[in-house]
Amino acid sequence: MRTTFPQLLLDHAAKRPSAAAMREKEYGIWQTTTWADMLELVTHMACGLHQAGLKRHEHMVVVGANRPRLYATMLAAQALGAIPVPLYQDAVANECVFPINNAEVRFAVVEDQEQVDKMLEIREQCPQLQHVYFDDLRGLRNYDEEGLAALDELLASGQAFAKVHPQFFESEVKKAQPDDVAAMFFTSGTTGNPKGVVHTHHTLLNRADVGARFDKLGPDDEVLAYLPPAWIGQNIFSYAQWLAAGYVVNCPESAATVTIDLKEVGPTYYFAPPRVFEGLLTSVMIRMEDAGALKRKMFHYFMGVASKVGPQKMDGKSVGLVDNLLYALGNVMVYGPLRNTLGFSRVRVAYTAGEAIGPDLFSFYRSIGINLKQLYGSTETAVFVCLQPDHEARADTVGVPCEGVEIKLADNGELLVKSPGLLKEYYKNPKATAEVLTDDGWYHTSDAGFIDAHGHLKIIDRVKDVGRIKGGANDGAMFAPKYVENKLKFFSHIKEVVAFGDQRDRVCVMINIDFDAVGNWAERRNLPYAGYTDLAQKPEVYELIKECIEKVNADLAQDTLLAGSQISRFLVLHKELDADDGELTRTNKVRRGFIGDKYSVLVDALYGNKAEQFIETVVKFEDGRTGSVSATLKLADTQTFTPVKAAA
User: Fold this and answer.
1) pTM of whole model > 0.85?
2) Domain that holds residue 589
């Protein structure tokens, strides 16, 4: 697709001006923005930013949730040849300093008072930050800071300018070329400062268009935009593909209303990382445990039918008459109501990405008639590298290379990619760019994987994370921590896992329980507890988690390649891992190395065969204050199983 984002906006507004482009829920009512409305909004925004001094090739930070006016701001910046840089709205103020200074940002457009306060807090560290515009006026009426103004003021200025210069907007749009820089996304920075990934209009729109055509997306489709726009996954699905395919993007009222809004919208196209699908399944299981005995029995019976028949039906395979009838009855009694409860009654295509999804979790959704598929990509590849065709979705692969993509494997098993969607560069970081982009156009993904006999890509883990057991009965066995972690996270009682084992004689794990799920489990057993720390250390909870681990060990014993990754010891952490404490990235990926260093005393205790260990941890609260959490943690052994030998 050789065009630009603002040009696509002009095309949609010309061809179907009265069609819905976006909807936003305010005070419980859905408000519609048509393509004509969006063009008018973007025009006035662009003229206002021009009046304020935003220049071509300049970066502009955008911080907030999915809101039509923030999307319009990004389009307006691109219309002027400027470069929007979305940042995570839940990032603490200090996390914004490096991106703003690195990109020499003078303009910031933010959603509300929380984001304004962050920008004002870091102004001394970012002296070039001159203009801060906000969308939501609540709480800001008495703020009197230089350069701080409401978006309404910017729009009023732009509207007046547009009346005098009616051709200005379109003339600016025509200056843009497909190979101009369109946006910059900062990586999560797990091993240092984040890197600015530079993308052009062509790299983003080419991949968005390929994905849209692959799944036959068009103007009749609906999506719910609820993930951070700073994450390229959300940005591609609700911004780039929105303009490429012309479907309707729906913005929920708040994070708290997402599940309600999901049911009201009934999206046809849905995207979420595995963590969201895990959370939805956990809520279902909690509700079923609270249901009456008859309803529970019916649910488990028909889920047994679904697990046997559902995936075959989704893959287009024929099933027997009896199975067909039972599944049809289950669809009326259980699967249909369940899809409706989840908000998936109209979903035609659902994707998960960001990290591997547990095979059991993947099968669960497909078994109840949801066309859940996996894709493979990254910020640097504009998301779409591999996609799973309908009827070829498997839990252990991420699909086949999509249109325009070439892949090959290096000698060390690393996946290399060549694609029209590759980043232009890492901003102001030629050394890092040279490390990932070869002279002949191949991108080093840092992922270990292989192509199976059906031409599908399998990802094992990050190359740097794939290790070996050293010593003991499993000396030399492969250790894939992410694979082990994901298998454990399928259990509704387990929220997060950190696995250790590389260059050690066995595998040990630290676990975060899911407080809601385990709390509900404890209450039904009249087990009293006083908060997360107390609940996590209950002997009954340790037995519950031990059962989950031993089920995973029994499963791993069936895999000749990963049988050595069975878990020997575990502990349940006294606090939930938190991005504010540096333990997770802003996309909720575990920072395993950081955690290993921070909790080294616990790692040593696990491998030192201790029965308990005292730990005190500094934590950061939402209001910026710090405190500490301490506890004496139990450490427990688990049963491992003899590997099953492959048949000769």
Assistant:
1) no
2) 467-637
